[in-house]
């Protein structure tokens, strides 16, 4: 679970990161920002599963972030004041923690997030199973994609792509020979456009082609490590919340 901490007091941000790590070993601090501007910039180029957001930041109230960038994750607000609670729940808030943050309140907020996440995924799976077939209004998955290498641009069949890789603000496509190309867009957009029978999103960085998965091994109690062909430059770990779905996809 990738967490963004937005807090303009450095020591409080470090303390919150330490407490989160002690409460849940699956938590990864994806980033720390300390202002509205830096948070907007971070969200434009990165993704997270949950955000802890201080109401009062150095350049204003953090509610303005929601007017400047699309926030795609749940938010738990942190503040020394309780009179912003109603405003907080008008946006993506699932929790509101008063400073100094109580350990039990923090634990309950994390539990609430996990319960909501599990419920949403379960409902989504049931809905897809019920619908069975795509509606006529649903877009067909893309079959070709525009790629570039420096100044040269080309169109390539998506089934020739072994995997897509997000690295910072850049998105790459790696073909079956291991050649890497620049690709426009984001993993989120690609995930919506690609054929889900052929491609699967393993984590926050990788979408892989079914035919590029050589094998997987257990990495921890709840995660697995995937071997790709061609081999990636780093270890590919399937997010804990995607392991079950990944295994089903492999034997679909």
UniProtKB/TrEMBL annotation:
<dbReference type="InterPro" id="IPR046947">
    <property type="entry name" value="LytR-like"/>
</dbReference>
<dbReference type="InterPro" id="IPR011006">
    <property type="entry name" value="CheY-like_superfamily"/>
</dbReference>
<dbReference type="GO" id="GO:0003677">
    <property type="term" value="F:DNA binding"/>
</dbReference>
<dbReference type="InterPro" id="IPR001789">
    <property type="entry name" value="Sig_transdc_resp-reg_receiver"/>
</dbReference>
<feature type="modified residue" description="4-aspartylphosphate">
    <location>
        <position position="54"/>
    </location>
</feature>
<dbReference type="InterPro" id="IPR007492">
    <property type="entry name" value="LytTR_DNA-bd_dom"/>
</dbReference>
<feature type="domain" description="Response regulatory">
    <location>
        <begin position="2"/>
        <end position="114"/>
    </location>
</feature>
<dbReference type="GO" id="GO:0000156">
    <property type="term" value="F:phosphorelay response regulator activity"/>
</dbReference>
<feature type="domain" description="HTH LytTR-type">
    <location>
        <begin position="145"/>
        <end position="252"/>
    </location>
</feature>
<protein>
    <submittedName>
        <fullName>Two-component system response regulator</fullName>
    </submittedName>
</protein>
<keyword id="KW-0597">Phosphoprotein</keyword>
<dbReference type="Pfam" id="PF00072">
    <property type="entry name" value="Response_reg"/>
</dbReference>
<dbReference type="Pfam" id="PF04397">
    <property type="entry name" value="LytTR"/>
</dbReference>
């Amino acid at each position: 679970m990738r967490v963004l901490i937005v807090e303009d007091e450095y020591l409080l941000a470090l303390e919150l990161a330490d407490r989160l790590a002690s409460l849940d070993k699956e938590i990864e601090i994806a980033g720390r920002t300390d202002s509205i501007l830096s948070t907007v910039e971070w969200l434009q180029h990165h993704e997270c599963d949950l955000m802890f957001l201080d109401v009062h930041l150095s350049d204003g109230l953090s509610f303005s972030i929601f007017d400047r960038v699309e926030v795609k994750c749940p938010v738990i607000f942190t503040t020394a004041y309780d009179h912003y609670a109603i405003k907080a729940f008008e946006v993506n808030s699932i929790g509101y923690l008063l400073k100094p943050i109580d350990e039990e309140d923090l634990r309950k907020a994390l539990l609430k997030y996990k319960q909501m996440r599990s419920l949403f995924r379960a409902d989504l799976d049931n809905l897809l199973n019920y619908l069975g077939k795509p509606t006529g209004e649903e877009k067909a998955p893309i079959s070709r994609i525009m790629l570039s290498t420096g100044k040269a641009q080309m169109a390539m069949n998506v089934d020739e792509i072994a995997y897509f890789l997000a690295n910072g603000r850049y998105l790459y496509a790696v073909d079956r020979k291991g050649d890497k190309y620049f690709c426009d867009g984001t993993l989120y957009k690609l995930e919506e456009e690609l054929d889900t029978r052929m491609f699967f999103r393993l984590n926050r960085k990788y979408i892989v082609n079914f035919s590029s998965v050589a094998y997987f091994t257990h990495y921890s109690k709840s995660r697995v490590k995937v071997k790709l062909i061609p081999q990636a430059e780093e270890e590919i770990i399937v997010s804990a919340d995607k392991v079950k779905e990944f295994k089903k996809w492999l034997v679909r």
